Amino acid sequence: MDKLYELAGGIWQWMLANTFYINIILSIVIIFFQRRDTKAVWAWLLILYFIPIVGFFLYLVIGQDLNKSKMFRIKEVEDEINAAIKEQENTIFNNEFGDKFHITDERLMDYKDLVLYNLETGKAEYCENNDVRIFTDGDDKFAALLDGMRHARKFIHLQYYIISKGELFDEILEVLEERVRHGVEVRVLYDSLGSRKIGAANLRRMKKAGIKTGEFFPAFLGIFQFRINYRNHRKIAVIDGNMAYVGGFNIGDEYIDRVQKFGHWRDTHFEIRGEAVNALHLRFMLDWNYATKENLFKINSPQYFNNKIRLRKEKMGIQIITSGPDSKRQEIRDNYLRLINKAKERIYIQTPYFIPDEAVLQSLKIAALSGIDVRLMIPCKPDHPFVYWITYSYAGDLLESGARCYCFDDGFLHAKGMVVDGIVSCYGTANMDVRSFGLDFEVNAVIYSAEVSMELEKIFLNDLTRCSEMTKYDYDRRTMGIRVKEQISRLFAPLM
C-alpha cells in the first residue's frame, strides 16, 4: 500500500511539474485533431489554462471525442432497408407521395421534404399504419407497459437510460420473471452511468431468472466511469412486435411520484402500434448487438418483426429518427430546426433543458419576430441547478424576441418535444440542448398527424394552467445573484 501511495504521489508531482507541456499537447489535439464547434474549442482552452490540473481531469472525463465511424452495423438487413428507403425516395421525387401514402390532409404535403431528409440521412422509413396513445403520467404509462408485458407471448425487450432499484422496478421484475417461466424471451438493456443505482442484487436476480441483460459503455473495473458524455439516453420497450413505447419516462420511483424531492413528474411517452413498432425494435436490436455482441439478426430475426399490421381508417405517418455522437449529422436537431423554419402559425416546445446551438436559437428568434406564436415551457424546479441557470439564460434570449416562456410549477417537467401548427410533432428522448443534439444517443418519433399533434397541443395548453409565465419585465429585474449564476453557467454551455 505504501508503494501505491508513493507511485500516486510520484505521478502527481510529475503532472504538476509538466502541466504546461500537458496543456500544450491537449491544446494541439483539441484544435487540430478533433472537429469541434469553435465555441467548444475556446471553452476547453480556457479551462485548461485557467484551471490546469482540474481541466486535465475534466477533459479525460467529458472532453474526449468519439470516433465518428458508425458504431451500429445492420449488414444482415441493410439491403432490404436500403431498397425500401430507395423506393420511398423515388415516390417523393416522382411527386407520388400523397397518393402512395394516402395523405388526405393537404397540409402534410408541405412536410415531404422533411420525410425525404430523414430517409436520406437517417434511413428512417416512413411508416403509415399506426396508432398512438399519449401518456403524461408515470402511473398510467407503467400500468399500460406492465399490462402489455403480462400478455407477452414471444419476447419483451426493454431499453432504458435509467433503471433504479425501488418499488417500480420490483414490480417490473416480478412480471419479467413470470414471463420467462412461460417461455418468453426477455432482454433488458441499460446505460452503465444512468443505471448505476440498479443494484447488484437486481442484476443477480435477473441472471438467475434467465433474463438477459446488456450494459452500454460499462464502467472500467465496474467502478470508474470515464465517459460522462456519449451515454445511451434512449428509452424503448417492445413487446412481441405488436406494441412499442418511446418517450421520456425512465424506470425509477421518481417517475411514478414516489420521490418527494421532485413532486409530480410530468413527462410525455408514446405507446405505438403499427409499422413504426418495427422501426423502434430495429433501433433496440442495433443497440443490443453493440452492447452485448449477441447478434439478434442472426438468431431468429423474422420473429422480431410483425408484418401483420392492423390498418386504420385514417392513416398516421411516423418516422423513428435517431442521433448520436457516432453520426456525422445531428438528425434530431436538424428535424427540430426544419420544423421551426416551416412553422406558419405556432411552435410549442417542452424541454427540461434548453441549451440550443446558435442555429436553433436564431431560428426561434426569427420565428418569434416574424409573428409566429413561439412558446417555451421549462421546469421551475431544477434537477441539475447548473444546467437550469443556462436554460434560464437562453429563455431570456427568447423573451427579447417576443417569444413567450413558462415555468412549470406543479412538480418537475421532463417532457421533450415540439409541436408545429397542430400538424406535425416530434417527441421522444432528446432534450432541446447541445448534449442531446450531439453527445448522447437519442431516439424521437416524428408524427405526421393533426390528430396526435392537436392532442399534444391541448396537453400543452392545459399544462399552462400549472405554469408561471416568465415575462420580459420580470426577467429584466432578476437579482444580481441570478445574473452571476447565468453568466458563469453559460460559459460552459458549449461543453454541456
How does this structure look, described?
The chain is α/β, with parallel strands linked by helices and 496 residues long. It has 19 helices and 18 strands. The chain has helices spanning 2-17, 19-32, 38-50, 52-63, 78-93, 97-100, 112-122, 138-150, 167-181, 200-209, 276-292, 296-300, 331-342, 358-369, 385-400, 434-439, 450-464, 472-476, 480-491, and strands at 130-137, 155-160, 185-191, 212-216, 236-239, 243-247, 265-274, 317-323, 346-350, 354-355, 373-379, 404-408, 412-413, 417-420, 424-428, 432-433, 442-448, 467-470. Strands 1, 2, 3, 4, 5, 6, 7 and 13 form an eight-stranded mixed sheet that branches. Helix 8 (138-150) packs parallel to helix 9 and helix 15 crosses helix 19 (480-491). The longest helix has 17 residues, at 276-292. The protein starts with a helix and ends in a 5-residue tail after the last helix.
Number of domains: 3
Overall CATH architecture of the largest domain: 2-Layer Sandwich
Measure the end-to-end span. Answer: 38 Å
Main sheet record = 8 strands, mixed
User: What Rg is obtained from the alpha carbons, in whole angstroms?
Assistant: 23 Å
Overall average pLDDT = 85
Query: Which superfamily, in CATH terms, is the homologous superfamily of the largest domain?
Result: Endonuclease Chain A
DSSP helical segment count: 19
Instruction: Tell me the β content.
Output: 15-25%
Write down the overall geometry: globular
Provide the CATH top-level class of the largest domain: Alpha Beta
CATH topology of the largest domain: Endonuclease, Chain A
Question: Strand tally, please?
Answer: 18
- The level of helicity is 40-55%
Query: From the helix content, strand content and strand pairing, which structural class follows?
Result: alpha/beta
Flag low-confidence runs: none
